[in-house]
Design brief:
Blueprint (H helix, E strand, L loop, with lengths): L4 E6 L17 H9 L4 E4 L4 H10 L6 E3 L4 E5 L11 E3 L2 E5 L4 H11 L7 E3 L5 H8 L3 H7 L6 E5 L3 H13 L3 E4 L4 E4 L4 H15 L5 E7 L5 H6 L2 E6 L14 E7 H12 L1 H7 L4
Parallel strand pairs: 1-2, 1-11, 2-3, 11-12, 12-13
Antiparallel strand pairs: 3-4, 4-6, 5-6, 7-8, 8-10, 9-10
Helix pairs in contact: 1-10, 4-5
Length: about 280
């Protein structure tokens, strides 16, 4: 009988990274323990490939990662013995894409949203300096954040009624609209949950069908599909918004601590035996 394998799927901003400082330091020890315990940490974020390439290296990860709210999965070629079906080779990765490219949504916004244009500004029209001012990112980080492949984040300036009308209009035009921590994300019908399910199945198939436990951690509304899809859902307390509503009523927890502190505490509690056994080799 196959042994249980654990996969950890994690949001970044406000979850593994502090909402204000973008630092992971309170979670670094737990990250190291997870690596020693052979528990993959799979980043599942609204961030871009350009951003993830840097963050992955800084966090010392060599695992697959999911970009732009589930739009695509990047799998290091050494992860599995066989290339998964429906993936293409891009550099050192097998890539599974789930939706249309960014240009489709830029065209839709340009041609179909005239009555709302005074209420929003998209990443494609912001300068890197503007984005730095809004987010607190460095100039280099802001430039990487603007390198979208699949969707367009926008900053909303209007009221809630106008925003709801805007969202309904875009949905009627075939777009998927997701509220992130700071921005509204316009793109195709993909989400973090769909990506989690697909990638979990690849692990199951490529490791001789083991029992797999998936743990997902996130703080924002755009994390909800991932949290709903996982075996265990961990909602991370945010300093800027309330816990989003989840429909599931089982195996769900909310942290008392914010960001990476809450992230580390939740995983230490859930995986105490595995992390304790790995701590002797750290």
């Amino acid at each position: 009988m196959s042994s249980l394998r654990t996969l950890v799927f994690s949001d970044l901003d406000g979850t593994l990274l502090d909402h204000f400082t973008y630092q992971s330091s309170p979670a670094d020890k737990t990250l190291a323990q997870l690596k020693c315990a052979n528990i993959p940490v799979i980043l599942n974020t609204s961030k871009t490939l350009a951003e993830l390439a840097i963050i992955h290296r800084e966090l010392k990860l060599d695992t697959p990662f999911i970009v732009e709210n589930g739009a695509a999965i990047y799998i290091p070629i050494a992860t599995f013995l066989v290339q998964p079906a429906d993936t293409e080779i891009v550099g050192d990765y097998w890539v599974k894409s789930f939706c249309l490219p960014r240009q489709h949504w830029l065209t839709l916004l340009a041609e179909q949203t005239d009555e709302f244009k005074k209420y929003y500004q998209g990443f494609s029209t912001m300068s890197a300096a503007d984005l730095t001012e809004i987010t607190g990112l460095s100039l280099a980080e802001a430039k990487r954040a603007q390198q979208r492949q699949y969707g367009e984040p926008i900053q909303w300036f209007g009221d809630e009624d106008s925003k709801n009308s805007f969202i309904e209009h875009l949905i009627d035009l075939g777009a998927n609209v997701v509220q992130g921590g700071r921005f509204i994300h316009i793109g195709g019908y993909c989400d973090k949950g769909q990506a989690l399910i697909w990638l979990t199945e690849q692990y199951r198939e490529n490791f001789n069908n083991p029992a797999i436990l998936t743990i997902a951690l996130g703080d924002g509304e755009n994390d909800s599909p991932m949290l709903e899809a996982a075996d265990i859902a961990v909602q991370i307390r945010s300093p800027v918004h309330n816990f989003p509503t989840l429909y599931r009523q089982f195996k769900t927890t909310r942290t008392q601590e914010y960001g990476p502190e809450g992230w580390a505490q939740a995983l230490q509690t859930l995986l105490a035996k595995q992390l304790l056994s790995s701590s002797t080799i750290i």
